[in-house]
Design goal:
The chain is an alpha+beta fold. The protein is built from 14 helices and 7 strands. Strands 1, 2, 3, 4, 5, 6 and 7 form a 7-stranded mixed β-sheet that branches.
């Protein structure tokens, strides 16, 4: 998440679509959680009070988002309403946050089209100003351009109609079984980094990554922790899931969803991938962990630290077992305890 030190309120408003992955529509609102000078999460929500009780609806929505943001350490909010009625909706959310919950709202914004207005409690809404261009900042932060709509954004995480690679062949699979876990992990890293640096990845390379990470939980978990460090590595795993053969898609989806969860905590993309993830096979436990973290709005930092710290020792133990130097079963990295999950994004 970006630091807000050099971002004024209008620039933070321009950042929201990049965090969400799409441009919020006129029937949506957003709450940005802040901690000091850092953005810790952005929740974009639909506005649909079916019973017409907008004040009660705003209260429920604010309380729900605030519960997650507070556990992530939020000490302030930016509240944004979109479309012709966005200003009134944002004010209702602000009312609940400040008066009912005692939270600090740094600014309340009304965004319509390409203009943003800031609420001044003493003088009503200020004059609208053009939203600034966030393109250069997004490039420095490694953020993709937002989709025009939520539906378009979801399409970026759906499986492709045809696979882009096939399963590893018999000879290659046998060669894989002769490699130590650390060797498998090292080759996985080289393939993924080469794809970003040179664009030289072949379908065979993707098949190797899929086989190496699906056949060893230790290699899988080490890959998740390592890939979550950069967007380019996570993108490789997402692309591999989208292009996976149908039989291999559940394992690839579990891997991609976990990497996204640890890397960005991005709710929209993780939620779109999880229905395709493994729920009955060897990666079902990973899927359950990611599903729980996603539903709770867990912050990725604690999850990432747990896997980062466990991976080297787990690979070493797996190598020892592979070489016959240890007759004990491999001790797998434990998932974070429920109490350790920091709720946030």
């Amino acid at each position: 998440m970006p630091e807000t030190l050099r971002m004024d309120t209008a620039m933070l408003a321009a950042y929201v679509p990049y965090d969400a992955g799409y441009q919020p529509g006129p029937d949506q609102v957003a709450l940005m959680g802040l901690r000091g000078r850092r953005v810790i999460g952005v929740a974009v929500c639909g506005w649909d009070p079916t019973d017409g009780r907008e004040r009660a609806y705003a209260a429920r929505l604010a309380i729900q988002v605030d519960a997650a943001m507070q556990q992530a350490g939020a000490d302030g909010y930016l509240v944004l309403g979109y479309g012709p009625d966005g200003g009134d909706r944002a004010l209702r959310l602000t009312e609940t946050l400040t008066q009912a919950l005692g939270r600090q709202v740094r600014d309340t914004l009304h965004i319509e089209g390409e203009a943003v207005a800031v609420w001044d409690p003493r003088h009503d809404w200020g004059p609208p100003h053009p939203l600034p261009d966030f393109t250069d900042q997004a490039r420095r932060l490694g953020l993709d351009a937002p989709a025009a709509s939520r539906e378009e954004a979801l399409g970026r995480f759906k499986p492709l109609a045809q696979p882009t690679y096939q399963r590893l062949g018999v000879e290659e699979s046998e060669a894989l079984t002769r490699m130590r876990p650390t060797e498998r992990f090292t080759r996985v890293c080289r393939i993924i980094d080469a794809d970003h640096a040179e664009g030289s990845t072949t379908p065979q390379d993707r098949a190797f990554v899929a086989a190496a990470t699906s056949s060893s939980m230790v290699v899988r978990d080490a890959t998740i922790a390592w890939a979550a460090q950069t967007r380019e590595r996570t993108d490789f795993l997402v692309d591999s899931y989208r292009g996976a053969p149908e039989a291999d898609r559940p394992a690839a989806a579990s891997l991609a969803a976990a990497s996204l969860m640890l890397g960005t905590g991005h709710s929209l993309s993780v939620g779109e991938i999880l229905p395709h993830a493994d729920i009955t096979g060897p990666h079902a436990q990973l899927t359950r962990l990611v599903t729980t973290a996603h539903s709770l709005g867990a912050s990725p930092e604690q999850l990432r630290r747990d896997l980062d710290s466990a991976a080297p020792a787990a690979l070493a133990r797996a190598d020892a077992v592979f070489l016959g130097a240890d007759s004990n079963p491999v001790s797998m990295p434990l998932p974070p305890r429920q109490a350790d999950l920091d709720l946030g994004h």
